[in-house]
Design brief:
The chain has about 475 residues and is of the alpha/beta class. It is globular. Helix 2 runs antiparallel to helix 5 and helix 4 runs parallel beside helix 5. The protein has 14 helices and 19 strands. Helices cover about 40% and strands about 20% of the residues. A seven-stranded mixed beta sheet has the order 12-13-14-11-10-15-16, sandwiched between helices.
Length: about 475
């Protein structure tokens, strides 16, 4: 036992959701290791059927699962329901991806018959985040299990109840308990899991700071697979956009859905100087109408609280730091109740700042930069170490072609939000946003490794040169 009792409370109310003691890292990995070979030996159809039963189990617990996500993560119930939908949909998407990305093939070559097959790595650790406490770890777990791996999953210490509920659904569906283990714990358990010699790889979703530390820790372990899905300092560019009302909607969806707690959320709005004032007017109209409230409120809020008071404090301090560096507040970030982590969306013009911090402010803060030329907008969009998501709002296809060709990001959108990526496509970024192992549809790539075999039914061989006569 490495840590103290884990306690989870509702961000919106402070009410207790879950409490329990941390798990034992050695025991959980030991159980997974003992169970892996039997699971890997099962036919693919057997594993797929178990995962399809899992989707049905989730469907049977739909309302309870969605309410738990809403309460523990603080997100509106409507959004929590979309997360449960994504959990169920992941099974069929992963089955299709597995067949396409990691197929069995037989080929003819100059050397004769060649077979291509894929093997699981063994025991994989999964570290999950709090913002999508079911969907994002599930995006690693389902393809990992399908490929024949065993998994030890450590949910965020901020959302342990959702993590435990997710794993319970797998077990209820008949996935063997030893094959998927949940490790409750805090940072100490996460570090011990990542450093354990008996894991064969780590699948991570979280902050760039933690991801970079993991990358360093795995630098001398090339035998272990490491997939990093990290954050973003994502730009949304508005240029030649006559429908500013629609542009404002896309900006609000990008920056403030999930209270800005998405790795794909727009952190920076880059706008043509000529459109700045009218666009700001449209944004202000929307924000004046925005409902901010508890997850189960009626009418449903657009935005709930951030995850906890510590996160709210940090965001408020960051907003003040931007102001102290020359940022001009256009809409202050307010906190209606000092004892709860509700924040109103903040807008700040950073055009005149000489030294803009390249950090991911994980909450409802949007930094605005005014520029005079589209080329400058692209330069500004790429002015970050991150490279996850970028979006252009424009009616000009030629500008989009230019933007797509020059924007440095793994997701480049046109007249769409920066967030809301498709599950049937790869998801990942460059720079500080990932290590070139995109997830979602491409998760199959890092859950199994290819094995190439030259094969013949009989051993027939001769050496035709370089031998003395016998």
């Amino acid at each position: 036992m490495l840590g103290q009792e884990i306690v989870s409370t509702e961000p919106a109310t402070g009410a207790l959701v879950w409490r329990g003691l941390p798990g034992n890292v050695d025991e959980e990995i030991g159980r997974a290791r003992a169970s892996w070979a039997g699971w890997a030996a099962q036919p693919l159809a057997y594993r797929l059927e178990a995962l399809r039963r899992f989707a049905n189990v989730v469907r049977s617990h739909y309302d309870a699962f969605a309410e738990l996500i809403a309460r523990e993560a603080g997100k509106p119930l409507w959004e929590a329901k979309t997360e449960v939908d994504a959990v169920m949909a992941k099974v069929n998407i992963s089955a299709t991806a597995y067949a396409e990305r990691t197929p069995q093939r037989r080929m003819d070559s100059q050397a004769g018959r060649v077979a291509l097959r894929h093997k699981p790595h063994g025991v994989l650790a999964v570290l999950g985040p709090y913002n999508f406490p079911a969907h994002l770890p599930n995006g690693h777990i389902v393809p990992a299990l399908l490929a024949g791996n065993a998994v030890v999953f450590k949910p965020s210490e901020k959302t342990p109840a959702v993590g435990a509920f997710l794993v319970k659904c797998f077990h209820e569906a008949g996935v063997p308990e030893g094959v998927l283990r949940v490790l409750i714990g805090g940072p100490a358990e996460g570090k011990a899991l990542a450093a354990h010699p008996d894991i064969d790889g780590l699948l991570f979703t979280g902050s760039a700071r933690t991801g970079i530390a993991l990358n360093r820790a795995f630098a001398d372990k090339p035998e272990k697979i490491l997939a990093l899905e990290m954050g973003g300092n994502n730009p949304i560019v508005v240029w030649d956009a006559p429908d500013l009302a629609s542009a404002a909607v896309l900006i609000v969806q990008s920056a403030f859905t999930t209270a800005g707690q998405r790795c794909t959320a727009a952190r920076r709005l880059i706008v043509d100087e000529r459109l700045h004032q009218p666009l700001l007017g449209e944004l202000t109209k929307l924000l004046d109408r925005m409902i901010i409230g508890a997850p189960l409120d009626n009418p449903q809020p657009f935005m709930g609280p951030v995850i906890d008071n510590e996160a709210a404090d940090l965001l408020q301090e960051s907003f003040l730091e931007l102001m102290s560096r020359g940022g001009r507040p256009l809409r202050h970030m307010l906190r209606p109740d000092d004892n709860l982590p509700f924040l109103t969306p903040g807008l700040i013009d950073v055009s005149e700042m000489n030294d803009r911090p390249d950090v991911e402010l994980f909450g409802p803060v949007l930094q605005i930069t005014r520029v005079n030329a589209f080329e400058d907008a692209i330069v500004e969009a790429n002015n970050t170490r991150y490279g996850l998501s970028a979006s252009l709002i424009s009616q000009d296809p030629a500008l989009y072609d230019q933007f797509w060709a020059n924007a440095r990001a793994g997701i480049v959108n046109w007249n769409k939000p920066t967030n809301g990526a498709a599950s049937n496509a790869p998801f990942g970024g460059v720079g500080w946003s990932g290590n070139h192992r995109p997830s979602a549809y491409y998760a199959a790539d890092y859950c199994a490794y290819p094995v190439v075999s030259s094969e013949a039914e009989q051993a027939r061989a001769l050496i035709g040169i370089g031998l003395r006569d016998g």
